[in-house]
Amino acid sequence: MGLGKTLQIIALLVTLSLVPINAKLDMPQHLKIDENQPRYRRYLIVCPPGIVVNWKNEFKLWTPPDCAEAVGDIYCINSEKALQERIMITKRWFDRGGILIRMS
């Protein structure tokens, strides 16, 4: 606890989100976006049910305001949501991109 792991992950995901689609970087292919179908990248964070909301709050706290659009929307799934609602949230995240924080 207190080693900055959450902040490091947030910084990495914000940085990846800001990389232009056509950037010529030595980056694994699966992290790049297809130039023919530009959309937000999708990130999945799996954590214990009790800290799903904490992750969302940390993203809101540490993502710079001018970078929030690049990261996309933040979606949360925890045990309080019904199965149908979880499916809808997952589909929305898959279609639009952004960050999905879900319980393990």
Write the layout of secondary structure elements.
Elements (H helix, E strand, L loop, with lengths): L4 H14 L23 E6 L4 H11 L5 H4 L2 E4 L5 H14 L1 E6 L1
Parallel strand pairs: 1-3, 2-3
Helix pairs in contact: 1-2
Radius of gyration: 14 Å
Strand content: 15-25%
- Gap between N and C termini: 19 Å
Number of domains: 1
Mean pLDDT, all residues: 86
- Which spans of ≥5 residues are poorly predicted at pLDDT below 50? none
Give me the side-by-side strand order of the main sheet.
1-3-2
Estimated structural class: alpha/beta
General description of the model:
The radius of gyration is 14 Å and the shape is globular. α1 (5-18) crosses α2 (52-62). Helix content is 41%, strand content 15%. The model has no long low-confidence stretch (mean pLDDT 86). It has one domain (5-19, 40-103). It has four helices and three strands, in the order αβααβαβ. It is of the alpha/beta class.
